[in-house]
Amino acid sequence: MRVLVTGGAGFIGSEFVRQLNEEVAILDTLTYAGDLNRLEKVMSRISFFRADVRDMEQIQKIFKDFEPEMVVHFAAETHVDRSILFPTQFYETNVIGTHNVLQASLETGVELFINVSTDEVYGERRGEGKFREDDPLRPGSPYAVSKAAADMLGRAFMRTYGLPVITVRPSNNYGPWQYPEKLIPVVIAKALKDEPIPVYGTGENLREWIHVSDTARALTKILENPRPGEIYNIGSGIELKNIDVVKKILRILGKPEDLITFVRDRAGHDFRYSLNTEKIRKEIGWSPEIGFDEGLYQTVMWYIEHMEWLEEKIKTVRNFWKMVYENESGDNRS
Is 120 a known active-site residue? Predict the structure, then answer.
């Protein structure tokens, strides 16, 4: 099976590629969050195409050259804070880019298209209960809106044009190789240097955490028994307050909790995400294998062992926020 993976040099995409035992091509722009170092051990069996999903002509040429039988679409802008500042970039990449990949898949007769969405398309969940696959989408940030549109585009291509699409909605992923703008690597990086650790609001927001290897394994299981038209939540059932995640990391590193610094809450910050995963467990026979405490410890140790990589990425984060602060006039909100 010839598989084309968009965003294959990203955090989740690269883990999926490392697990996949098929003829693989990767399509990636290699923006700040993409990194071929994540694929160093498997590059010998990968065809790599550097391309932007927003460029339809480029995408069509790659599809013609590689002739994929299956597409797994990860490519996306993903960080909520960046989407608040630069929403247009998110709409262009996540919506137009997804449309381009879907259209090229349709034109070349792709046999299966996996559209990787997110739990954030549901919006926040107050009180009890968990989101099911047939719940309405109520995205609450520019990022979530762009992913909801991409999610719906995939399903529209199946209904309208007959493209065989499966939609997956994972919860918050963590693990090795995650770019240090997300909560867990940010806390690790700050704590290792005894720097103040910024926590939004009071840290009470709840997230469901899943190890990236469990998410990738769910996708490989879906490929073994594909059911076009289906939607699958991918989650662990492990819900934790952000503040409790931060404290767990500090305990692993032996650092004091007074490093925690509460900062002004993110605009429109969703309070809770929680997924019902009965469907994927019953239909696909998948369940997560890595407990959070085990996975978090392994993740912390990985970053300690890869400090050079972490430091390099932190520089790009700092350069980005320096640029933002230097352009606070509002002209950057495009």
Answer: yes
- Encoding tokens for residue 216? 């990738």
Rg (CA), the chain: 19
Between the CA of residue 98 and those of 3, 21, 105, 214, what are the distances in Å? 17, 25, 11, 24
Residue length of the chain: 334
Percent of the chain with pLDDT over 90: 88
In this structure, the strands spanning 70-73 and 2-6 are parallel
- The answer to whether 234 and 279 are in contact (CB under 8 A) is no
232 tagged catalytic? no
Question: Of 15, 28, 52, 119, which residue is the catalytic one?
Answer: 119
Element housing 313 (H / E) = helix 307-326
Residue-wise pLDDT tens digits, 8-32:
999 999 999 999 988 899 999 998 8
Is residue 185 within 8 A of residue 304, CB to CB? The reply is no
As a whole number of angstroms, the longest Cα–Cα distance in the chain is 57
Is 214 among the residues known to form the active site?
Answer: no
CATH number assigned to the domain covering 2-173+212-235+272-289? 3.40.50.720
What residues does each domain of the chain span?
Answer: 2-173+212-235+272-289
pLDDT band for position 194 (50/70/90)? very high
Q: Which DSSP category does 54 fall into?
A: T
Q: Which residues pair with 89 in a beta bridge?
A: none
The Cα–Cα gap between 266 and 200 comes to 6
In 3-state terms, what secondary structure has residue 69? coil
Q: Which tens digit of pLDDT belongs to each residue from 68-104?
A: 999 999 999 998 989 999 999 999 999 999 999 999 9
Instruction: Choose, from 35, 52, 77, 120, the residue flagged as catalytic.
Output: 120
Closest CA to 25 of 42, 41, 37: 42
pTM: 0.94
Q: In the predicted model, what is the mean pLDDT of the chain?
A: 94
